[in-house]
Amino acid sequence: MPSLFEDEPSAPTIAPDAPLAARMRPRVLEEFVGQEEVLGPGKPLRRAIEEDTLTSVILWGPPGCGKTTLAHLIANHTQAHFEPFSAVTSGVPELRKMIQEARQRRRGSGRRTILFVDEIHRFNKAQQDAFLPVVEDGTVVLIGATTENPFFEINAPLISRSRLVVLKPLEPEALADILAHALADEARGLGRYTLTLTDDARDHLVLMSDGDARTALNALAEAAALAGKGGTITLETVEAAVQRRALRYDKDGDQHYDIISAFIKSMRGSDPDAALYWMARMLEAGEDARFIARRVVVHASEDVGLADPMALLVATAAAQAVEFVGLPEARINLAQAVIFVASAPKSNAVVAAINRAQGDVQKGRLAPVPAHLRDTSYGGAKKLGHGQGYQYPHEHPQHHVTQEYLPAGTKSRPYYEPSDQGYEKKIRERMKFWGHLPPDEPAPTP
User: Fold this and answer.
1) For a tag site, which of 194, 223, 239, 407 has the least CB within 10 Å?
2) Could you tell me the pTM of the whole model?
3) 368 CB neighbour count, 10 Å cutoff
4) Domains and CATH numbers, the chain
């Protein structure tokens, strides 16, 4: 289907000296890469675009993932009037005028209007109400683009009347393909300059762009200007162009394992400064923040445990913040958790306890559950002797009573032996009082 950009006055015209990212914007769906989950062949959104049956959608994703590009591709594939609108540069009066024109267009020729509102979250909830009646009665098909969580920034009634399309940051493979295409395209890209891009330079461009195609392409253009016609874009060229040093860090090689090992051992060794340094190295090199968060959560239990039960709460809260907030702000949440875990009292009693318990389960005979501990909730259980002899702890002083909770001969040694660190001191005294530990037994070394 021919592009409507030629006869629609509102459609953009890309100048030859426009930024490389603007010149390389995909013109057909086949050029749109990196969002196959929502726009791959046969996907519902792809079919709706190709068949020109699109209904209102909210495009949610980070900068440079293709929201605006997708809107312009829809313009290329529709017979409807396409009206771009920016919530940054325009306001409600201009919007009302467009809606009135859409009503007249629909009454006069029956032609639909697709209204693309970039940065739709810039409208407050009251202003967004202006869309509801015209979306509901079909006067306009709304395409709203936002980088913010629509469940917080977009009216619920508007979301309920629209299809929510979540676009993700572009994967490294997709970004590498986009860069290669820009280098090869002679008409719109850099192909006429016959440039060569080294592998490490490409990898650094991909890494520093953080899933943003616009950033990657514009950085490539800067590096190409430094390299000159027929030149080679090296890692040093890219570093000079983007003013960001490439850190030696191979996510699948020694550097990855060495640095994460140093990070873990620094937390275990109670050195917050060292732990923060290694975390900063990983973040600057492009390590997945979720990977870092997972390690902090693990070591909150493995190296701190019940010496400070708050460590796990702080660590899991930071992991949730990584998902909810994202980088770069979530680096602060991660730093808080790392400092807490590194500076907390240390004990490995929890991990030692589960290791001992699993060791007995794996090596020993799986004895039946003692009769007094068995379930008594179904009819006939008591006739089988289930629950007979069980003592209810809350009916005894201190809400504790000594009775056997394991099959005879199951346990090779005490599993949980609290240290004398932090809160485990109190746990240790309690276990001595209950008789689980001898009163004069020295605390184990954490």
Assistant:
1) 194
2) 0.57
3) 7
4) 4-166 (3.40.50.300), 172-242 (1.10.8.60), 263-343 (1.20.272.10)
